[in-house]
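Our preliminary data section would be incomplete without showing what the modeling component actually yields. Below, a chain of 219 amino acids is followed by its predicted structure, encoded as tokens that our downstream tools consume directly.
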Amino acid sequence: MGQNIIVLLGPPGCGKGTQAAVLSELLNIPVISTGAILRAECESGTVLGNSVKATLARGELVSDDVMNQVVASWIAHPHCENGFLLDGYPRTVPQAMFLDDTLETLGMPRPTVIRIDVPGQVLVDRITGRRQCPSCGKIYHVRHNPPAHNGSCDHDGMALMRRADDTEAVIQERLRRYEEATAPLIEYYREMVFHSVDGSDNPAMVLEAIEGVLGLPVW
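Predicted structure:
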């Protein structure tokens, strides 16, 4: 099948994590999530890991240069030789340019970029209605995926909680910042292998659209 290098783009609440997990299993490639690899680097005890840990401890954002180093280190691992899926990277045009150069150096193809596009109001509805079990972590939605017993987890009966930042005002601001930050990145990728899929449908339909983009058989 060749190497599948996939970049998933999309605003908070668009379902990137859900689709990434399914695609990883379907294509037998790892998901490289920026949050996960930064945590792993912090625990590694390496010079790079200690630098990342100190930056995060100060409450600062990891710079492009450091983020690039971390990603380059991960995608050079043997477990990425058949491809990988990036979730949360690149976030800027310089990061995207660095990724292109790194892939070329490794003899890998340019990425297929897939944007999961969801209208702002749909995202607000998704996130404001989100509830999570503080014990097992299971996520519900007050309308689309409610628990069997109102307000409590089906698994362990714990009272469900709403994240403090899952309010409409906070979400609208996060979406505004996201669109502002990623607009140049979208324009950069439009000149390459760029696709946009409708993420407002149910996850199975969104997956089917992504499979169509990747040229995979849809069962």
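The first strand starts at residue 4 and ends at 9. The beta strands are 4-9, 31-33, 83-87, 112-117, 130-132, 139-141, 194-198. Preliminary results of this kind motivate Aim 1 of the renewal.
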